[in-house]
């Protein structure tokens, strides 16, 4: 159709990780939590299905979730925006801050959705290369960006910048800095404590990783309440449904349960890192729920293809100037052991 916007027609679009409908697949490709959600989540969903809750609209701003999250995380409830997954809140941020023909900046390699968001908006997208050890240049070289995305921890590397480096970047750019913290619950620190004093910092969170709710679709933004008021004008009227709000509220309230899961995942991540290193991989130290590994002696794409044929799925990624590698989600100990057993036969 000739009426399709030229920038949409020209873009490749974002390609999500494979979701194969095969129960025998060991799925280590999209960084889901390998453990089930808190039992409180199932109770909350069952309760939401009773009475006439589904007949009525949900809370448009997720007030119950915001109050609960504010108490748990130590932030202002008026400084929280709810979203249908973190991709939704990234879209809301782009629509709010970036005009057509505007500029979005991001480090690279990182989350490839950022480019798609710029292309949809009809904006320019400028990247800043990470150094060889996954650090950022200082000062930041891009001036005048309407929005700067900084994934922390980063994907595919799993690396994280220190809090003082994030503050320095926020001061360097002056404009809005989005700290994309999809994996921050697995890291040594997070940016929520910076929001009150760094007024141009916007923190985004996902419930797909730490909270085992990738199938529910929920995320949120934490920022200065003045920014949240503007974002609320842009979001869909009811962008989160009754079930997602109930599940997310129950999940974030049960920190003890998820703290135990975090300890298991971090321990398995450590064992996976050691085992991959012993098998000849170069593994980047990770603060996420996945590891990024490469080899200099043999190509890694055939390894990916052979394991996929054996029903073990992870991500093969290649970046111009950075080579290629394998991003492997941290599964259960049994899943990781199966992966390693098959790798030992191949490598």
Mean pLDDT: 95
Number of helices: 11
Poorly predicted residue ranges = none
CATH homologous superfamily (4th level) name of the largest domain:
Type I PLP-dependent aspartate aminotransferase-like (Major domain)
Number of strands: 13
Reported for the largest beta sheet, the result is:
7 strands, mixed
Secondary-structure element sequence? Answer: HEHHEHEHEEHEEEHHHEEHEEEH
CATH classification, class level of the largest domain = Alpha Beta
Distance between the termini: 49 Å
Structural class: alpha/beta
CATH architecture of the largest domain: 3-Layer(aba) Sandwich
Beta-strand percent range: 15-25%
Fraction of residues in helices?
25-40%
Rg = 20 Å
Strand order of the largest sheet: 2-8-7-6-5-3-4
* CATH topology annotation of the largest domain: Aspartate Aminotransferase, domain 2
How would you sum up the global shape?
globular
């Amino acid at each position: 159709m000739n009426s399709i916007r030229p920038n949409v027609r020209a873009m490749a679009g974002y390609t999500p990780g494979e979701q194969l409908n095969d129960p025998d697949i060991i799925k280590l490709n999209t960084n889901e939590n390998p453990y089930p959600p808190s039992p409180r989540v199932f109770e909350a969903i069952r309760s939401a299905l009773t009475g006439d809750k589904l007949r009525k609209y949900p809370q448009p701003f997720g007030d119950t979730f915001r109050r609960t999250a504010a108490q748990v995380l130590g932030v202002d409830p008026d400084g929280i925006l709810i979203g249908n997954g973190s991709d939704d809140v990234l879209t809301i941020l782009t629509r709010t801050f970036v005009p057509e023909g505007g500029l979005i900046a991001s480090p690279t390699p990182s989350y490839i959705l950022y480019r798609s968001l710029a292309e949809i908006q009809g904006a320019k997208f400028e990247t800043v290369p990470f150094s060889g050890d996954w650090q950022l240049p200082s000062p930041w070289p891009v001036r005048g960006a309407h929005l700067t995305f900084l994934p922390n921890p980063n994907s595919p590397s799993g690396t994280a910048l220190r809090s003082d480096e994030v503050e320095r970047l926020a001061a360097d750019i002056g404009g809005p800095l989005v700290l994309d913290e999809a994996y921050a619950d697995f890291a040594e620190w997070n940016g929520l404590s910076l929001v009150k004093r760094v007024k141009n910092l916007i923190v985004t969170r996902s419930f797909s990783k730490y909270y085992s709710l990738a199938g529910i679709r929920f995320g949120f933004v934490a920022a200065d309440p003045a920014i949240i008021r503007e974002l609320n004008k842009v979001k869909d009227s009811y962008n989160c449904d009754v079930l997602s709000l109930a599940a997310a509220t129950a999940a974030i309230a049960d920190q003890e349960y998820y703290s135990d899961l975090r300890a298991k995942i971090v321990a398995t991540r450590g064992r996976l890192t050691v085992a991959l290193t012993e098998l000849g991989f170069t593994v980047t130290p990770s603060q996420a729920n996945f590891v990024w590994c490469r080899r200099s002696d043999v190509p890694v794409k055939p390894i990916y293809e052979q394991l996929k044929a054996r029903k073990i799925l992870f991500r093969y990624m290649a970046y111009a100037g950075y080579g290629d590698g394998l991003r492997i989600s941290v599964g259960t100990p049994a899943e990781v052991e199966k992966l390693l057993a098959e790798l030992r036969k191949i490598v």
